[in-house]
Amino acid sequence: MFLFCSLSFNSATIENFSVVETLSENAVIVYQTHKRVWPASQRDVLYLSAMRKILANNENNPDTWLVCNFSVDHDNAMPTNRCVRAKINIAMICQTLGIQQLLQAEKRAAEKVAEARKRKNRRLKQAKEEAQAEIEQYRMQREKDFKTKEAAALGSHGNSAVEVDKETVGKMGSIQTSYQQNREGVLGNLLKMVCDIKPEIHVNYRFAG
Fold it and tell me: Where does the record place the START domain (predicted)?
């Protein structure tokens, strides 16, 4: 396919193309016929096509191809009366500039994609760390608020306990004072009620007739 494309002929004029013999990986004998252009006779050509690839000295430069085509004779493709055998002697140098540029562009695009992925991963990691820091800061603030409210609540409870104890002591003192003041009178009334008994008939009692 490369040999066919490397010929100097316009592919629109080629009618038939075939490889008569393969001499090596880089050399073949080709027979091809061309479309007849009236009023001239139809032409055919038999030639040996050899090519050589010269690698570029760095990745920024394209590879170079050397192509040589020259007429030969071969027993399997003898001239016929149908076509006039043309003679050629062609040497060409070409470079795969477009392919090389495409490969370089593809490489640069892959590098940009890889760099974008790295930036994305770094940003995701940074965002995660920032979120963790904010969560930790919020947790510490809430814990601090809780400790403050807890201390205030415990302090208020302690003050209430002191007030209750103080009030209890005061009431106990009042009760003790009242006890001391009224003890004799209460005991006297109790003894009087127990010892000073006056027998009486109940108002509901009825004598038997």
Answer: 1-87
Q: What three-state secondary structure class fits 39? A: coil
Asked if residue 101 is part of any domain, the answer here is yes
In a domain, 190, yes or no: no
Q: For the chain, where are the E strands, in sequence order?
A: 14-24, 27-34, 43-54, 64-71, 84-86, 89-95
pTM of the model: 0.43
Q: Which domain holds residue 36?
A: 2-95
Mean pLDDT by 10 residues, the chain (209 residues): 45 87 93 91 94 81 86 93 93 74 81 91 90 90 86 67 82 85 80 75 67
Q: Cα angle vertex 75, ends 74, 77, to 5°?
A: 70
Residues 50 and 130 in one domain: no
For 71, 183, 186, 190, the CA distances from 178, given in Å and listed in that order, are 146, 8, 11, 17
Q: Tokens representing 142? A: 């809430």
**What is the distance between the alpha carbons of residues 115 and 55, in angstroms, rounded to a whole number?**
30
- What count of other Cβ atoms lies within 10 Å of the Cβ of residue 86? 14
What's the rounded Cα separation, in Å, for the pair 97 and 103? 10
Number of structural domains (the chain) is: 2
**Strand-pair partners of 30:** 19, 47
- Alpha-carbon separation of residue 103 from 52, 66, 97, 163, 178 (angstroms): 21, 21, 10, 89, 111
